[in-house]
Write a structure and sequence with these properties.
Helices cover 31% and strands 27% of the residues. By secondary structure, the protein is α+β, with helices and mostly antiparallel strands. The chain has a single domain, classed as Gcn5-related N-acetyltransferase (GNAT) (Aminopeptidase), CATH 3.40.630. Strands 1, 2, 3, 4, 5, 6, 7, 8 and 9 form a nine-stranded mixed sheet that branches. The structure holds coenzyme A. The site of coenzyme A has 23 residues, from helix 3, strand 5, helix 6 and helix 7. The site of coenzyme A (COA) has 23 residues, from helix 3, strand 5, helix 6 and helix 7.
Length: 207
């Protein structure tokens, strides 16, 4: 099982190349400290619509610096999609290995017992010009592979998904997430909890 420290020491072990059918080559890899400037560019370019659907503490260089400073210090693993050859960051895929009491309570109400030995939280954000092109779906198996390497077997949505975000809901559904329940945000809006069960990988020694 991989630890966050081991990943930070050798981020390239998780790097994968992928190609969107209508775009340049992309590299999927962990965020590194050298990414601060490009990450600030990514955050700063997010439209107000994207910021409403996927909220960060800030969208400037200081916010990017904070995310880079957090590498291997807490429970988070942040992965990026980097466009080749521009080096532009066009996606941020966030995993948290910690659960909140609110997550645990909501899922318990839905009859699901969450545990930090099995579950992790996931939140994806693509650059505006990369949304709705199937890139999120290309990345999903790569995220699942990382989650397995971290020793977890289920993924829940980090903070849920807003009920008025039909593209994200469709995206999660088609990638195997199932709806678990709904809850009301502090502003009165509705969000959905969704969960992905990672099926066990086939046994290589099997028939
Ligand atoms: C959510 C997100 C990661 C999904 O990645 P993506 O690459 O855009 O998604 P995909 O293209 O793989 O899938 C989107 C699906 O939604 C469908 N879709 C698009 N707009 C839709 C709409 N208004 N209503 C219903 N379905 C819609 C697409 O047709 C596609 O389904 P299909 O392949 O069956 O045709 C990305 O859109 C994103 O970053 N959005 C902004 C931030 C965000 O919402 N993050 C998630 C917070 S929970």
């Amino acid at each position: 099982m991989l630890t966050l420290t081991e990943i930070a020491e050798n981020p390239l072990r998780l790097a994968r190349r992928l190609k969107a059918h209508d775009g340049p080559e992309l590299v999927f890899r962990p965020l590194t400290r050298a990414d601060t400037g490009h990450l600030a560019g990514f955050l700063g370019a997010l439209s107000s619509a994207s910021r409403r659907l996927s909220t960060f503490d800030g969208y400037d260089l200081a916010a990017a610096q904070e995310l880079c400073d957090a590498i291997a210090r807490y429970d988070k693993l942040r992965l990026v999609l980097e466009e080749v050859p521009s080096s532009r960051i066009v996606g941020l895929l966030e995993l948290s290995l910690a659960l909140t009491p609110a997550d645990i309570a909501r899922y318990r109400d839905a009859g699901i017992r969450l545990a930090e030995t099995t579950d992790c939280r996931f939140g994806p954000t693509l650059a505006d010009d990369y949304q709705g092109r199937g890139v999120g779906t290309l990345v999903c198996p790569l995220v699942a592979e990382v989650v397995r390497l971290l020793g977890r077997t289920r993924i829940i949505l980090w903070g849920g998904v807003r009920a008025d975000n039909p593209r994200a809901i469709r995206h999660y559904e088609k990638n195997g997430f199932r709806p678990v329940g709904s809850f009301t945000e502090a502003d009165g809006s509705l969000s959905l909890d969704m969960m992905l069960d990672l099926s066990p990988l086939p046994d290589p020694s099997g028939p």
